[in-house]
Amino acid sequence: MRRITEKLAYYINRIKYSDFPNSAINIAKLAAMDTIGAGIAARCTDVGKLYLKTKPQTDNGCCSILGEGKKTSLMEACFINASLCQTLDFDDTYEINSLAVSHPGPAVIPAALSVGEKINCSGKELIKSIILGYEVVIRVAKAIEPRKDEFWGFANTQIMGAVTAAGVLLGLNEKELVMAIGIAAACSPVANTNMMWSLEKRPISWVKDGVGFVVSTGVMSALLAKNGFIGSRRGLDKEDKYYLLCGSENYKEREIVKNFGEKYEIENLSFKPYPTCRFMQSTLDAIGYLLKERNIKTQNIKRIEIYLPPSLAKFFAEYEPGSMIDAQFSLPYAVAMVIKKEIPSSLWYEKKQII
Predict the structure, then answer these.
(1) Which pTM does this prediction carry?
(2) N or C: which end of the chain has fewer CB within 10 A?
(3) How far apart are CA 88 and CA 155, in angstroms?
(4) Burial class, 227, CB count within 10 angstroms (exposed 0-12 / middle 13-18 / buried 19+)
(5) CA-based Rg of the chain, rounded to a whole angstrom?
(6) CB–CB of 182/234 below 8 Å?
(7) Residues 249, 250, 253, 258: is their CA dihedral positive or negative?
(8) Which secondary-structure segment (H or E) carries 94?
(9) Phi, psi of 307 (to 5 degrees)
(10) What is the pLDDT of residues 41-57, one digit of tens each?
(11) How far apart are CA 98 and CA 77, in angstroms?
């Protein structure tokens, strides 16, 4: 009898491109364009430029960096592209009862693009790897939630999407995929605590989900498994207690394989209209609608009062953000951008805006 991890690998290997409904394929294409666009836009930001500085100065390699023609190694491309795709905080979101529980895009899309470029995959193969990568990210997220309040970040689920996308493209068989998942689970970054984000004691840490490390490790896990490296065969099984690394006390392992292939969770994605933390989006929408519906002129605004849940008021009431990352988690700053009618893009985080 197959364990949960073995069942997952079995189901993944059975899926064919023709099994996907057009709705899932179309959302996968949209998610890819959304993530790639966010990554390219981030190149001009201060944080994006720091990531670009980490790449080698030579053109030797087989994989592209978003927004340029130069090639680099697979691992460098995975790290830099994934990091760029998260820099603007424009990443797509999966929610449970309106609570964000994962940002799959910056993990799955760069892993699929880099591995796909290395092996010269077809478009259909790329889309298949993306849909299945999202499926695994989201299913693991549903299995571990709710987590302890002090555990933040989504690296633990993101790595499962990266290893899945890479494993699908590399043609891992069922046994190899089980091993890849086991390796990824054992090497998974431990979830950040809320204190590690430094929201209360700013400046905020620029690590956030550390998705560059996540994607590099996920892809390497798939490559190792393909070459015969041994990992746990129970990576996502309850007995291996992977869920403890995620901060979960109520692990529902059957959610990972329940009705697999009957529908695809990528169709339930949400996309951010603003380059900020997901928790601020609805407030910004409300401000924008209010300005438009009542035809409020910027020069006539004297005072703004916003009523928020205590946690948001505690963490996001930053009036003098010192960097673009601080600004992404500053509601007063984001509201100012909406009132100024600044296009939601990297323009929000130009130095002249923050200073």
Answers:
(1) 0.96
(2) N
(3) 17
(4) exposed
(5) 20
(6) yes
(7) negative
(8) strand 94-96
(9) -105, 125
(10) 999 999 999 999 988 76
(11) 33
Q: 191 pLDDT exceeds 80?
A: no
Task: Retrieve residue 42's tokens.
Answer: 């981030």
Structure tokens at 86: 């998260």
Residue in this structure with the two tokens 């951010």, named with its chain if needed:
272
Q: How far apart are CA 105 and CA 345, in angstroms?
A: 17
Q: What would the pLDDT profile of 131-178 be if each residue is shown by its tens digit?
A: 999 999 999 999 999 999 888 889 999 999 999 999 999 999 999 999
Which helix (DSSP H) or strand (DSSP E) does residue 8 occupy?
A: helix 4-14
The number of CA neighbours under 13 Å toward the Cβ of 345 is 9
Q: Which two tokens stand for residue 40?
A: 């390219």
Residue 97 neighbours by CB distance under 10 Å = 6
Q: Report residue 170 as tokens.
A: 């590399």
Q: Which of 211, 212, 215 is nearest to 223 (CA)?
A: 215
In our burial notation (b when 16+ CB lie closer than 10 A, e otherwise), range 43-64 reads bebebbeebbeebeeeeebebb
